[in-house]
Write the structure tokens for this entry.
Amino acid sequence: MTDAWTPLAELTLTTSESDVVFSSIGGSYRDLVVVTNIDGSAQTELFIRFNGDTGSYVSLRLQGAGGTAAANTHSGNGMRLVGNGDIKTDFTFNSVIHIFDYASTSVHKHVLSRTNSSQGLDLCTGRWVNTSAITSVTLYPATGTFETGSTFQLWGLNTA
Amino acid sequence: MTPVFPLSSSSFGDYQRYLSMLAGNAAYAPAADEAVIAEELITTNTASVTFSDLVSGYGDIYNHLQIRAIFRNSTASNNFTDCYVNPNSYSGGGMRSHWLMSDGSSASSGQNASNNYGRLRQCVAKGSAGSGQFGVAILDIVDAFSTSKYKTLRSMTGGYIDGQKHVSLNSDLYPSTSAIDSLELYPAADSFVSGTRITLIGLK
């Protein structure tokens, strides 16, 4: 049996960036997974966008910080993945973002992610209201930049 | 396969010369650390999906199992229903579930017991939802093939359909030391419909 996962791209920032884009993603995998460790220029939220589209995204987060659990929803032109576990300026922000059936042209694109930082943690589900196959993934902070040393990996789940 | 050193050989000329150290054998390919064991792509209404013969097929290779799936069923009523997970056709009524969840308004937790199944909570989107909308789930079963431990099913599930939403972190106890030889998944109501996809992964 072949590996379940194929590493598609890995990036370590050598300068500050306002976003990170994985582009020209082929359609031969079943799911995508993005793994990050981020240092931000400011405390802020992480967003994701597909194919550069600024259409409609919805998300729901189950979040915890400081002994309190809460829920938070968002809709807008990017998918908000973070409620309490914000990107921080201390390299403690980690995320694993699962993107289901990304190459399908008949289903909307659904996301499950878990994120954490020294600020808190989040479990998030979201949907890109679009049936287009995903060929690019953009990650960006709500404010500021990703800082030098931040790492981003993209993996593809192979089909059976 | 041509023998390398035929026992019947009577002369040096009978020996087969190989340039490869494999000597006519297929190369040994160790199993991947993580591999897709099976994948079910639903195209017609299907009441349940069962992965079977897991011990004989994978028990010596992998330690853990993972399910990754997107779900939709044929029901028109509830926005989301659970996907039930029944290991080894269990009917002992002792499975116990705990969850931490949100429907968007608040966070809450809960539990129930005396089930014959684990619960991937509220991750099967209703069939009457808008086109293209599904629920999603990732389930991990640690030490699935152990014969000395009870099994714990850990999952995260989510969905956001037609303004209705759910996300949860779930844990289910399967109170048996039997290795998991089969896994049946089925929606709490009606049938899976086209577009539902369930992938089974083995992990060392």
The longest strand of chain A covers residues 57-65.
